[in-house]
Amino acid sequence: MYSCKWRALGIALFVLLAASSPAQQSFVAQYQDRVSATQAAQPHWITPLVTVTPRLEQEFRSDFVRQSNTRGYDTWNLGNGKGLELIPTRRVELLFNLPPFLDHTEPHSRDGFGDVSFNSKFRIFARNEEHGNAIVTVFLAASVPTGKNGNGSCCAVVTPTLAMGKGYRLLALTTTFGGSLPVSNAAKLGHTMTWNNVVQYRLAARGRARFFWPELEFNSSFYSGGAGTRDWPHPAAPQCERRARPAGPHLRSGRADRADSLPYLQPRAGDHDAHPLLVAG
Predict the structure, then answer these.
(1) Chain centre distance of CA 22
(2) Domains (ranges, CATH) in the chain?
(3) Which pTM was predicted?
């Protein structure tokens, strides 16, 4: 009798799984079709190294960045506060970022994980290359003070940002401007206004050269309030990017020149040099 009961239970589970399989496949297929249609309506530029792109992306991304100061010491940022990026609806992207790990070469600096951060995008306007080649998006990001050994902020920070881009044939121009809003202790942290500008040029529309995008980024931060306040513009970062596929996991490495190379949304100050690099995506 028990053998018959287990057999009947096994048959019922098999029938249930078999019936739900087409529904699961249908959901995945519909989801991917919606993501493809969303991305087809926007420009198809390469994602910059530092500046957050106004385009909606679906991928898992991890960056490895080395930051140098004027005293000759380096900080390796493993992960750079990147992670999973999803497009759940037609105009929205959600970013769930892993905390970066900071490895310091400077004496008396302790290594450790940085803050956990999140981001969201709402695409207001988008036209692909055939219908205007432009995009306007707003971001709303936040960080949670989970960093260890002084590698994070003392308080949670919210950062709204406006991002815009315009393409002219093989040339793409992107600009973003945002400001940090500390949830608490604003008198100590102050506010950081970040203005990023990117110039990209695709070497060719066809052939192997179409995978290469020389890029020049201008990343500037301006500080208001907080300890040691002063405007701190940063130099340009010349780059060259090679795009091997339109989407998928991205591993990037190189040298960065600005404080945002450290955990995203954590206001910091420092002197950094610009260095050319080659990014494979």
Answers:
(1) 34
(2) 41-280 (2.40.160)
(3) 0.73
